Amino acid sequence: MVYRFDEKKLQELIDEKVTFESFFQRAKIHPNAHLIKGVICGYRIEEIEDEFEVYRQCRRLEKLIDELAKGRKMEKILREEKK
């Protein structure tokens, strides 16, 4: 089952003390999430190895939050694959 998380659902997950792995398994991930690149917390997202997928997903989420905090619009942040 895939969820879109509203405030109520997020609070339920917090109360349930879900792991990051469980959170990302339940989340509806944008199909272009793999296009998120750059440095966050000193790590280059695209260089995080596949075996650390949950960690890479956490860095992508932090990158999105950072971009929103800088005032970028969601339309600009959600990149499209170049053809």
Keywords:
83 residues, mainly alpha, Helicase, Ruva Protein, domain 3, 2 domains, two-stranded antiparallel sheet, 4 helices, 5% strand
How many individual domains?
A: 2
Give me the Rg, rounded. Answer: 14 Å
Please state the second-level CATH architecture of the largest domain: Orthogonal Bundle
Structure classification: mainly alpha
Biggest sheet character: 2 strands, antiparallel
Number of contiguous helices? 4
Fraction in beta strands: under 5%
User: Roughly what is the average pLDDT, rounded to an integer?
Assistant: 86
Per DSSP E runs of 2 or more residues, the count of β-strands stands at: 2
Chain oligomer state:
single chain
Instruction: Give the overall form.
Output: globular
Report the span from N to C terminus: 31 Å
How are strands sequenced across the largest beta sheet?
A: 1-2
The CATH class of the largest domain is identified as Mainly Alpha
> Can you tell me the CATH superfamily of the largest domain?
uncharacterized protein sp1917 domain
Fraction in helix? 40-55%
Low-pLDDT ranges? none
CATH topology tier name of the largest domain: Helicase, Ruva Protein, domain 3
SSE string, helix = H, strand = E?
HHEEHH
Summarize this, please?
46% of the residues lie in helices and 5% in strands.
Characterization of this structure:
The protein folds into 2 domains: 1-30, no CATH class; 32-83, Helicase, Ruva Protein, domain 3 (Orthogonal Bundle). The protein is globular, with a radius of gyration of 14 Å. The longest helix is centred in the last third of the chain and has 17 residues, at 53-69. It contains 4 helices and 2 strands; from the N terminus they run ααββαα. With 83 residues, the protein is mainly alpha-helical. The chain has helices spanning 7-16, 20-26, 53-69, 74-77, and strands at residues 39-40, 43-44. Strands 1-2 form a two-stranded antiparallel sheet.
